[in-house]
Each structure stands twice: as structure tokens, then as C-alpha cells.
Write a structure and sequence with these properties.
The chain has about 525 residues and is of the alpha/beta class. The chain is built from 16 helices and 15 strands. Helix 5 packs across helix 6 and helix 7 packs parallel to helix 10.
Length: about 525
């Protein structure tokens, strides 16, 4: 950290926003005039790689500096344990910290909000205060008990259905303005107490279902009724629902409208920071946790694959030590953890409790460092799997464990349409990928691997994985496969055995009376 490093950090996640719908990445749909202006004073990263294609593991990585296999937070273990969070580290160093979102995974019950001095979750069905205390303990007990784990899956599945219903139509009510207002109040309170601060916000509008405010629909999706288009990705992915070109256009129009609303609200926050003379002393990180598929590769949503529409995410950073420019080198979202520590002059690495692990600042992973991603200089004993597998920093790595909640919903939609999903399909697969700016290799445990020359085939239409080991092998594809193998070895081994265990409701009868009553109070059982 230099003497002129900002004293505060604002970290913004645009949930489920793919970069090709944003002006700074060449989109001409007029969705993001605010981000367009922000990009003029920020570094725009073209090749940022997310560590996973969905919210929970990505945020756990942002908050711990760990790859998903290390922090272990996924749908089969939906809470972060044994790791000291960024917020805990910053709070211990004297910074005031806050987290505001409307994403159901960023709550006390997942432990992602551990360490934040203030937090609120504006999720419409299961708010943050509900998912703390006794209910959080009940949730954890259900997930720790194999017989009751499926009950927890049912809870989330039904919660998602309820969210889709309550967030639809005339009842739609974006929580983003409330998130912005709460953030402003937190900043005011912090500076009144003469404290520097770290504020993390997740803006959820662009996540399914898409029901943007009316004025944005009129501009970006005129004539579209959001209640009439397919808003359930599982119906489409299961084969229970077709979507034609006109409907895809309507869906994309609604998606653009949601992004435009986010942009307006984020601009409101940025303008306020400028008007109150806080802008220059605030480092700002804006990224997406993952993207979204709208029919590409015959998929809808952000499950069951590691295509670039999901894992090559937008990342823009405003910091006085970074040039207002574009960069085309490989960057991992994991590196923002170290960038925040570096900005605020905090070394980290001290566990909040004896049974936890804490990642210390590594300047080869800080965007501010002259040694950024020069991993060959890191002591062998200190290298993480990504550093071991890519000593030149050229590759980023992605991990995707089996998504049991989405899988359960997918099975339900397929069954209702009389469709049987093949077990040897991408829906039941775990995946890992190594991605550079020009090549990607994806290892998949139930179906053939995938590999693409991203420079020549950015849409990932030509799978070259079968060429590895042959006379016609592409050198960069072979390099990506080799780097992935090194990452897998450092991470404890490749996922070569297909994950087992189905998600059912058979264990409902084995619930104890207390758990049954809690589910009944929430309306999930009768």
C-alpha cells in the first residue's frame, strides 16, 4: 500500500451479469451509461475468470481468497466453515465493514456474512434475520445429517419457487434501491465515527426471474409481458419447454432492462460519493460473480457448464495505482481478495479462531503489485494450486461441484413432462477448467471433456478435446489440459469418479418434531 492508497473500499457484485451486455465491453444496447462513464476512470479487465459459475462458491472465494475445493462451500455443503473471512480480517484491523444484498446465499446461515459489522439481506422469501440464530442452526443440523440433507434441499427448492412467485408480475419489487440507501447510511455512520470502511454489495436484479420496473421494460422490452415468457431455466434445460427466437429476444430485452436499472442505481451511489467528496478516497471494484446463458449451447441460466458466457466475467477497478486503461492479461476474481487487503494495508493471515484457516496477503495476487501473477517467485511451500499449475500466471482455474438444488428442480420439471434425464449427462457432472486468454480445457466426470481455442472460436463451437494426445493436437489446448492436470494434482486429485447420491424427499418422515415445526411455520410442509 502506498501513502496515497484510498482509505475505503466499495466492492460491487453485479449478480448474474454477463459482460457482453455492458457498454464497457462493446455492447451498444445503451444499458450502462453509468458504467460507461466509470470505465473512463477505471481499469477494465477483459479476461477475468470466475472461480465457479454460481453465487455461493464465488462469494466464498471472494471472502476467503481460496479456490472452491479449499473452502468447500457448495450446494452439498451450503455454508462456509473453517475459514476466516475478509470481513473478519478487516474488522479486526479496525475497519468498519458492511454487506448488503438480496441474494439468498449471502446470509448468516451460509456464514458468508461472518465478520461484517452490519449486514442485511433483502431476499423476499428468506430474509437475513430469519436465516440466523435458531433457524441457521437447524439448517446446519439438517445438512450435517445425511438423512435430513434432502429436507434442506427441499427447503431451498421450495424457497426458490416461492421467490419466483413473489418476485413476479405486479408484485415485483427490486431491492436494489434499498441496498443503495442502506450503503449510503453505513458510509455516513462510519465517517461520523471517523472510521475507514469496507462496503460489499450484491445487486440481484439481473438474476432470474426478470421482472424489471415498468419504465425500463418500456425502453428495453417494449410490449413484453414478463409473466408470459419463460422465467424458469429448469423447464427449458429439462426439455419440458421450448423457446423460439422471438421469445429469446423478449427474455434478453428484459435482462437488458434489469441491467439498466442496476446501472441507474449504481450511478446514484457513485454520484453521491462524488458530491460528498468521498470518491477520491474510495477504491471501487465492480464485477459479476458469474454470467448467464440465453440459449447458447442449448442451455438457459448458469448451471451445468463452464462456458465463457458464465466464467469470463466483467471486472472494473478504480484505484489511483491502476491506470484508466484496458488489460487483456488473465485475471482471477480470487485476486480481488488480495487487492482489497493490499489497498487497505492489511496483511491478514491471522485466523479468527483456532479451528479456522486464514489466507494472508500475497502481493503476487494483488492487482496493485508490480509482481502481479509472477507466481514463479512464490516459495514452493506457499503456493496455492493455481500458482503451482500456472507459474507464469497465464491460466485461471474454475471448479463446479454437482448442483444438487438445481438438479432436484431439473428432475422435477423433467418428470412433470414425462422426460427421464440420462444420468450420464452434463446435468449430473462435476467440472474443472483451466482457462487462458486463448485456450480452455474442461474436465467433466460423466461426459466427454471440452476444449476450445478461444482466440479463434470465441463462441466455443468446436470442441478440440479429442485432439489432445494425437498428431493433430493443438499446442495451446494441450498446454491447457496439462495445466489443469497440475491444478487437479495440487487440489487433491482429479474428479474422475462420477458423483453419486440422488436428491429425494424420502427423509421427510425422519425429521424431528422441532425441525418439522420450523418447516411448517415457513409453509414448506403441512
Amino acid at each position: 500500500m502506498s501513502d496515497d492508497s484510498p482509505g475505503n473500499v466499495l466492492f460491487v457484485v453485479l449478480d448474474t451479469v454477463r459482460k457482453d451486455r455492458l457498454g464497457p465491453y462493446g455492447y451498444d444496447g445503451r444499458t450502462t451509461p453509468g458504467l460507461d462513464a466509470f470505465a473512463e476512470e477505471a481499469t477494465v479487465f477483459d479476461q477475468a475468470v470466475a472461480p465457479a459459475p454460481w453465487t455461493l462458491p464465488v462469494h466464498a472465494s471472494l471472502f476467503t481468497g481460496m479456490y472452491p475445493h479449499r473452502h468447500g462451500a457448495d450446494q452439498e455443503n451450503p455454508y462456509l466453515e473453517g475459514a476466516t473471512t475478509l470481513a473478519e480480517t478487516l474488522s479486526a484491523a479496525g475497519y468498519r465493514t458492511a454487506c448488503y444484498s438480496s441474494n439468498a446465499w449471502i446470509t448468516p446461515y451460509t456464514h458468508l456474512t461472518d465478520g461484517f459489522d452490519d449486514q442485511d439481506n433483502f431476499f423476499e422469501v428468506m430474509p437475513g434475520d430469519l436465516l440466523s440464530g435458531p433457524l441457521a442452526k437447524a439448517w446446519k443440523a439438517m445438512n450435517d445429517n445425511e438423512a435430513l440433507r434432502t429436507v434442506a434441499d427441499k427447503l431451498v427448492s421450495l424457497g426458490n419457487v416461492a421467490h419466483e412467485y413473489l418476485a413476479s408480475g405486479e408484485g415485483a419489487d427490486s431491492k436494489t434501491p434499498a441496498v443503495i440507501d442502506r450503503t449510503k447510511s453505513f458510509i455516513d455512520d462510519s465517517e461520523s465515527a471517523d472510521d475507514d470502511w469496507f462496503a460489499f454489495i450484491n445487486l440481484m436484479d439481473a438474476h432470474l426471474p426478470y421482472h424489471p420496473p415498468k419504465e425500463y421494460v418500456e425502453e428495453f422490452a417494449p410490449g413484453v409481458d414478463s409473466t408470459e415468457v419463460c422465467q424458469n431455466s429448469k423447464e427449458y434445460n429439462a426439455g419440458a419447454r421450448d423457446i423460439d427466437d422471438d421469445e429469446w429476444d423478449a427474455i434478453r430485452g428484459l435482462y437488458d432492462a434489469e441491467i439498466a436499472h442496476i446501472d441507474d442505481q449504481l450511478t446514484r451511489l457513485f454520484d453521491w460519493l462524488k458530491e460528498t467528496d468521498r470518491w477520491d478516497d474510495t477504491a471501487v471494484v465492480v464485477c459479476a460473480d458469474h454470467g448467464e446463458l440465453h440459449g447458447e449451447h442449448d442451455l438457459y441460466g448458469h448451471e451445468f457448464c463452464l462456458y465463457d458466457q458464465l466464467i469470463n466475467v466483467p471486472l472494473l477497478v478504480k484505484h489511483p495505482e491502476l491506470d484508466a486503461d484496458r488489460r487483456e492479461d488473465t485475471v482471477e476474481l480470487l485476486d480481488t481478495y488480495h487487492t482489497v487487503l493490499d489497498t487497505l494495508g492489511v496483511e491478514g493471515g491471522t485466523p479468527a479462531s483456532d479451528d479456522e484457516e486464514a489466507v494472508a496477503l500475497d502481493r503476487t495476487r494483488s492487482l496493485l503489485s508490480a509482481d502481479y501473477r509472477e507466481f514463479a517467485g512464490v516459495d514452493d511451500a506457499d503456493r496455492d494450486p493455481g500458482q503451482r499449475a500456472s507459474s507464469d500466471g497465464d491460466f485461471g482455474f474454475v471448479e463446479y461441484s454437482r448442483p444438487v438444488v438445481e438438479l432436484k428442480q431439473l428432475e422435477e420439471k423433467a418428470a412433470s413432462a414425462g422426460i427421464e434425464l440420462p444420468e450420464d449427462s452434463r446435468f449430473y457432472s462435476r467440472m474443472r477448467a483451466a482457462r487462458s486468454t486463448d485456450a480452455k480445457y474442461v474436465r467433466i466426470d460423466r461426459v466427454p471433456d471440452e476444449a476450445f481455442r478461444l482466440d479463434a472460436d470465441p463462441n466455443e463451437d468446436r470442441n478440440l478435446a479429442s485432439t489432445v494426445g494425437t498428431d493433430g493436437a493443438d499446442d495451446r489446448i494441450a498446454e491447457a489440459e496439462a495445466r489443469l492436470g497440475e491444478f487437479e494434482a495440487a487440489a487433491g486429485g482429479a474428479w474422475t469418479d462420477a458423483a453419486a447420491g440422488e436428491v429425494t424427499d424420502d427423509s421427510l418422515e425422519e425429521m424431528d418434531d422441532e425441525a418439522t415445526e420450523r418447516l411448517r411455520d415457513l409453509g414448506y410442509v403441512e
